Amino acid sequence: xxxxxxxxxxxxxxxxxxxxxxxxxxxxxxxxxxxxxxxxxxxxxxxxxxxxxxxxxxxxxxxxxxxxxx
Length: 70
Fold this sequence. Notes:
0% strand, mainly alpha, single chain, 70 residues, 1 helix
């Protein structure tokens, strides 16, 4: 194999690796965006659950008061 052929193979490998890296970067950006959206939604769900817990506690205290404090 001549030096020119080796250089050609190295150039092809370099180009393939560069494309692979570009794809990985794009996938990483997409994953990061999806994670941010998931985290936002999870935060909203947790806020909702907290609100429901608060309402349940209020109702529990009210029922306990209506039952004569038992």
